[in-house]
């Protein structure tokens, strides 16, 4: 009965005359082949190189101008409807996967074949001059957040520079069909087999709701603003899988309040800040403030202070274990030294704060721990760009907590036939030393890369790259990459 | 702490010296090409060649001369590509030009000699050749834009098509006078591309507010069919060779959006507004790195697998911006033999990997990490024990371990053994305990049993 009704409804809808309209679309197709070796350890402790072969196919589709002709705005700023889709097919084979955990222990990112819908939604911009919306799988990010969900998002221009946003859906998780785990909250593992970790919980859907209020001094949100601020709230929860007596029916996986903002004084001084309060642990877990000053026409001086405390999925016990945080002070300088010549220098200092119970019998265990409480380092480099040549050199040195690293990188690109054929090279060398590991705790690596990019036709490019590395742990480690890219707008 | 303080002071002093030196050196070098830096972007206004002698200030000071008097097409032009340079005909209304008499002089009248306006005609004798050249080039101002034309010996005016949209007619109709945008022209001689309006001036009106003209980037910048800005621009110019360039934010809008040499590794602040990024970029470009399958070579150098350990411990760059510990890191570490194998974490099972804390033939962690020399579980923190690292930076731990590893010793389940509390002093009375217990007690129940008084933070 239901089938007949459905068939009848479809037939009626097809029979009703309708106004047709045209639309345009852009397709970006990329095929990436990679073969490389991953350094690992055999069960007897010997160094070994695991061969990995990957073939990845991307398909990005953007359909636009699908709004009816009568909705179209001559300035292009209103009533835009579009569809945006990104699909990825990733096949992984070679020796690397032969010994991977299987069955219950299988880890999503070590599957032989993965099909991911990275995002797929229908969207609207400037609907009636006031509303932006997206419906489907979508990715959102701002200064202190990065998340993905299946659902709907709507941003309404309330009045003047005031915007209101609301969104709802379910969190994108690796356990969902056609989903990548990158956007999932960290802290739990679907590959866990210990019943105490509640692996069944990984299969539960996680509803997500949130909203935001934003003040955007540039009106259209297109960059001309002198000030902007956004207060956002997000909550993710899930029902308890197979609850035991006395267990709660639901639990919160994520609940955050974030305030971000920016301001500018003329075109010389720019400031931005972001602060995030995690209601799950009743603490601020991310704070950033940065100032950037244009000291001359093409010279920038920047300073940044950041605070970061690791937090996890509400189902993870690590929210309890983790009680530390670090503060960073970063400074940087960038300059255009001459036409086509740029240089930069950056430095950071990190201080890990003391955690409760760190001082025992008057001894500061945090300072005495391997690596101490401090880390710092810096990098400097320059690049030269000419009509046919691009050369870049970088050097870096970090020390303190985490270990020491010292290295440099020299890369170059030369247009053999401008606009058609380019050759590229890269030389890398670095030394590192662990502050903690007693075994294989230091090493030196030298690497060389040679590549070429060739434009086969308009919007069609071919890219080859070969790499070889030698160092403390092996004489040779090879890598090859081939990429073909087709970009078409119709 | 003294050691920490000395370290910090040394670092700050060194950093200050390096940055001060770099600023000083950079300032000197940058000043050397200051003129170039002050000019407009050649991507928007490609370099022009105007081999003419002309004085806007003198003409306007004479009275009766208006902008529209010479640039007649300006008020009806609807595209920035329109040729608005006055032709010879416009000059003839005052200058008694006679191409057959290139050296013509009329006392008391505006000059009529060719070299009065044409710069390279000043040392000329073969007038016939020049006249021939002019005749071939016609009168049409800059003529075919960017083309050499048949200018004979006289260099031609070349005003390449600007890579921008502009509607003079619309602005004129709304009462925007020429001087509002061409601010300096009335006070100077020859006007060049350096006198064309910059974005900051446009944004003085185009604020995007409810009663202001639009601030949408695509309203002025050239766009692709899908609405994104066209960033690969052809730059014509006086030179015969065509050059292409890439349009990128200079930082004049938001500061942090300047696409400097380090932008690819440090764009978190600029990326706070994805709508702004999507003005030029595809959404998929974010995921090429942030959920990619190809290692970005300029972010992770060759053989980064070997180097990544210090970076991961320091979380610099922030690993979580592209990777998830419990899938990406654990998966690779298990496969590479540097993490506890899946079976090792189960009660009663020992890890089999070479770096395991039990039967492993190599030791990843230092002695007295979790157990003392006798094999007994450590119950009090030590400087070298794992609790210091876990409390400070548990992300490093969970790149190899899963929750069951912690439960081995930290569970209150008597069948598991040690029952060592991971909670620091004062945890039971803390807001953190209450918030976690209230929000999601499932996590607490991984270690505690249902009904335990600890669940109520007592």
Instruction: Count helical runs of chain B.
Output: 17
Strand sequence of the main sheet of chain B, in spatial order?
Answer: 1-2
The SSE string of chain A, one letter per element, is: HEEEEEEEEEEEEEHEEEEHEEEEEEE
Distance between the termini of chain B: 35 Å
Q: Residue share in helices of chain B?
A: 25-40%
Quick check: average pLDDT of chain B? Answer: 80
The percent of residues in helical segments of chain A reads: under 10%
Number of strands of chain B: 2
**Shape, principal axes of CA atoms of chain B:** elongated
Overall structural class of chain A, as computed from helix and strand content, comes to mainly beta
Could you tell me the number of beta strands of chain A? 24
Task: Summarize the structure in words.
The complex is a heterodimer of chains A (490) and B (458). With 490 residues, chain A is mostly beta strands. Chain A has three helices and 24 strands. Chain A has helices at 2-15, 318-321, 365-368; strands at residues 24-41, 47-64, 80-93, 113-127, 131-142, 145-159, 162-171, 207-216, 227-239, 250-265, 269-278, 283-296, 299-308, 326-338, 341-352, 359-360, 363-364, 374-385, 389-400, 404-417, 421-433, 442-457, 460-471, 477-489. Chain A has a 22-stranded antiparallel beta barrel. In chain A, strands 16-17 form a two-stranded antiparallel ribbon. In chain A, strand 1 and strand 2 (47-64) form a beta hairpin. Residues 219-225 of chain A have low confidence and may be disordered. Chain B has 458 residues and is mostly helical. Chain B is elongated, with a radius of gyration of 36 Å. Chain B has helices at residues 2-32, 34-38, 56-61, 67-70, 88-92, 127-137, 168-173, 178-181, 199-205, 274-277, 283-290, 304-314, 325-336, 386-397, 403-410, 431-439, 441-444, and strands spanning 232-235, 243-246. The chains are: A mainly beta (490), B mainly alpha (458). At the A-B interface, strand 1, strand 2, strand 3, strand 5 and strand 10 of A face helix 1, helix 2, helix 10, helix 11 and helix 12 of B.
């Amino acid at each position: 009965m239901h089938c007949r009704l459905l068939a009848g409804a479809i037939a009626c809808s097809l029979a009703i005359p309708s106004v047709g309209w045209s639309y345009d679309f852009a397709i970006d197709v990329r095929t990436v082949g990679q073969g490389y070796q991953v350094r690992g350890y055999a069960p007897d402790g010997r160094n070994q190189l695991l061969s990995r072969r990957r073939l990845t196919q991307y398909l990005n589709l953007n359909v636009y101008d699908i709004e009816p002709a009568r909705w179209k705005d001559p300035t292009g700023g209103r009533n835009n409807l579009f569809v945006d889709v990104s699909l990825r097919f990733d096949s992984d084979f070679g020796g690397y996967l032969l010994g991977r955990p299987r069955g219950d222990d299988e880890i999503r990112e070590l599957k032989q074949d993965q099909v991911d819908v990275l995002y797929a939604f229908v969207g609207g911009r400037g609907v009636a001059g006031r509303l932006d919306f997206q419906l489907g799988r979508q990715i959102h990010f701002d200064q202190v957040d990065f998340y993905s969900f299946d659902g709907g998002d709507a941003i309404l221009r309330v009045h003047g520079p005031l915007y209101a946003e609301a969104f709802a859906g379910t969190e994108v998780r690796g356990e969902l069909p056609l989903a990548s785990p990158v956007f999932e909250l960290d802290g739990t593992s679907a590959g866990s087999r210990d019943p105490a970790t509640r692996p069944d919980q990984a299969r539960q859907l996680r509803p997500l709701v949130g909203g935001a209020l934003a003040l955007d001094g540039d009106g259209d949100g297109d960059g001309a603003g002198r000030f902007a601020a956004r207060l956002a709230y997000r909550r993710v929860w899930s029902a308890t899988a197979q609850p035991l007596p006395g267990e709660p029916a639901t639990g919160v996986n994520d609940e955050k309040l974030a305030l971000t903002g920016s301001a500018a004084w003329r075109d010389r001084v720019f400031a931005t800040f972001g602060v995030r309060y995690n209601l799950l642990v009743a603490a601020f877990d991310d704070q950033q403030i940065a100032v950037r000053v244009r000291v001359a026409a093409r010279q920038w001086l920047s300073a940044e202070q950041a605070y970061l405390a690791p937090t996890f999925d509400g189902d993870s016990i690590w929210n309890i274990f983790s009680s530390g945080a670090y503060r960073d002070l970063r400074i940087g300088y960038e300059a255009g030294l001459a036409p086509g010549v740029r240089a930069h220098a950056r430095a950071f200092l990190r201080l890990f704060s003391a955690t409760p119970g760190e001082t025992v019998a008057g001894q500061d265990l945090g300072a005495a721990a391997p690596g101490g409480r401090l880390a710092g380092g810096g990098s400097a480099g320059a690049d030269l760009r000419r009509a046919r040549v691009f050369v870049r050199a970088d050097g870096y040195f970090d020390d303190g907590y985490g270990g020491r690293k010292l290295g440099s990188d020299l890369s170059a690109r030369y247009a053999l036939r401008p606009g058609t054929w380019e050759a590229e090279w890269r030389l890398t060398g670095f030394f590192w030393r662990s502050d903690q590991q007693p075994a294989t705790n230091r090493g030196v690596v030298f690497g060389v890369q040679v590549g070429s990019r060739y434009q086969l036709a308009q919007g069609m490019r071919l890219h080859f790259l070969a790499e070889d590395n030698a160092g403390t742990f092996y004489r040779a480690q090879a890598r090859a990459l081939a990429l073909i890219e087709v970009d078409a707008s119709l | 702490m003294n050691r920490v303080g000395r370290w910090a002071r040394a670092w700050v002093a060194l950093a200050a010296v390096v940055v001060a030196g770099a600023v000083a050196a950079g300032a000197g070098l940058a000043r050397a090409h200051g003129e170039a830096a002050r000019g407009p972007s050649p991507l928007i206004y490609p370099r022009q060649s105007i081999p003419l002698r002309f004085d806007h200030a003198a003409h306007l000071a004479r009275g009766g001369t208006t902008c529209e008097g010479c640039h007649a097409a300006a008020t009806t032009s609807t595209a920035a590509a329109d040729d608005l340079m006055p032709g010879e005909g416009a000059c003839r209304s005052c200058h008694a030009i006679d191409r057959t008499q290139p050296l013509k002089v009329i006392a008391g009248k505006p000059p009529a000699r060719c070299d009065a306006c044409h710069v390279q005609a000043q040392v000329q004798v073969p007038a016939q050749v020049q006249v021939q050249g002019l005749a071939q080039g016609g009168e049409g101002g800059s003529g075919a834009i960017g083309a050499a034309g048949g200018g004979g010996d006289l260099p031609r005016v070349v005003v390449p098509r600007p890579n921008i949209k502009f509607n003079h007619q619309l602005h004129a109709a709304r009462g925007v006078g020429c001087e509002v945008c061409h601010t300096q022209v009335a006070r100077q001689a020859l006007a060049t591309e350096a006198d064309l309006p910059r974005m900051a001036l446009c944004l003085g009106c185009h604020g995007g507010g409810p009663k202001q003209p639009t601030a949408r980037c695509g309203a002025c910048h050239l766009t692709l069919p899908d609405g994104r800005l066209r960033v690969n621009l052809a730059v014509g110019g006086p030179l015969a060779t065509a050059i292409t360039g890439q349009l990128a934010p200079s930082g004049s809008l938001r500061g942090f959006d300047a696409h400097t040499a380090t932008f690819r590794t440090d764009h978190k602040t600029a990326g706070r507004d994805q709508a702004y990024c999507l003005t030029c970029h595809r959404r998929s470009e974010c995921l090429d790195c942030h959920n990619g399958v190809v290692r970005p070579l300029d972010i992770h150098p060759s053989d980064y697998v070997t180097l990544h350990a210090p970076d991961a411990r320091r979380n610099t760059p922030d690993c979580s911006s592209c990777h998830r510990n419990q899938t990406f890191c654990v998966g690779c570490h298990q496969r590479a033999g540097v993490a506890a194998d899946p079976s090792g974490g189960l009660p009663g099972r020992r890890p089999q990997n070479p770096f395991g804390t039990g039967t492993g033939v190599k030791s990843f962690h230092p002695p007295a990490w979790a157990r003392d020399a006798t094999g007994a579980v450590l119950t009090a923190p030590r400087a070298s024990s794992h609790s210091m690292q876990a409390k400070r930076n548990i992300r490093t731990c969970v790149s190899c371990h899963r929750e069951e590893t912690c439960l081995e010793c930290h569970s209150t389940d008597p069948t598991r053994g040690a029952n060592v509390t991971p909670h620091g002093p004062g945890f039971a009375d803390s807001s953190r305990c209450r918030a976690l217990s209230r929000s999601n007690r499932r996590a607490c129940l991984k270690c505690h049993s249902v009904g335990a008084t600890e669940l109520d933070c007592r």
